[in-house]
Amino acid sequence: MLIICYLNKIIVHLYYTYNTLWYYNNSIMIDFKLDPKSGSPFYRQIIDQIKFGIAAGKLKTGEQLPTVRSLAVDLKVNLNTVAKAYKELEIQNVLATQQGTGTFISEIKIEISAEEKNNKLQDICNEFSSIAFSYGFSVNDIINQLQKQKIDENKYR
What we know:
It contains 6 helices and 3 strands. It is mainly alpha-helical. It folds into 2 domains: about 30-105, Winged helix-like DNA-binding domain superfamily/Winged helix DNA-binding domain (Arc Repressor Mutant, subunit A, Orthogonal Bundle); about 115-155, no CATH class. The protein has a 3-stranded antiparallel sheet with strand order 1-3-2. α2 (about 40-55) packs across α4 and α3 (about 70-75) packs across α4 (about 80-90). The longest helix has 25 residues, at about 1-25. It is elongated. The N and C termini lie far apart (about 50 Å).
């Protein structure tokens, strides 16, 4: 009996994992990433990524977001973390949750100010440069490497 119960749990887990991966591969237009070293709480990072995703056009009005449970599993965070982010975005009318059907992007236009974009880019650059400097690279080394790579911006959008 214990073995059957355990096997049922494995089957349910595999089914859930497969469907979650299928969902992400086939519908979601944003790849959530959390940085534990950023000093910003995870729920705030989720909020910022959704807002920046909307502003950049990666998330469109009416698009369904992952369920709280599936996003929490994917990001390896507590359910309450994702629920808090979604709830705050609902209060701001950025998201709309429909009981039984899911959470969707509302009909709201989000514009990120130049100052906010600059602050975000500065944070990213500070983190990146501190890692590079810790390995002994100079600013010129970093610039030269970026120029050699000729990064295709669309690859990362």
